[in-house]
Amino acid sequence: MRSDLQPLAHSLILLGVIFAGVGLIILLVPKVPWLGRLPGDVIIERPGFGFYFPLTSCLLASVLISLVFWLVSQFRH
Hints:
Radius of gyration: 18 Å
Helix content: 55-70%
Number of helices: 2
């Protein structure tokens, strides 16, 4: 393998491991009752109409994913 592609290969392997880990968590952890029901999640239910936008849950997931990537970058140096 060319040495200039080695960092890309390591990054792709790490990304694959992260995706596999998230997949296992989704399969093995039962439904989290509070996820999607946090304050700030928009839920509008009317007869014949329902709208759901998990704003706070998405922000929480984004913060957690950013934290994981930051920790990984700290250990790589």
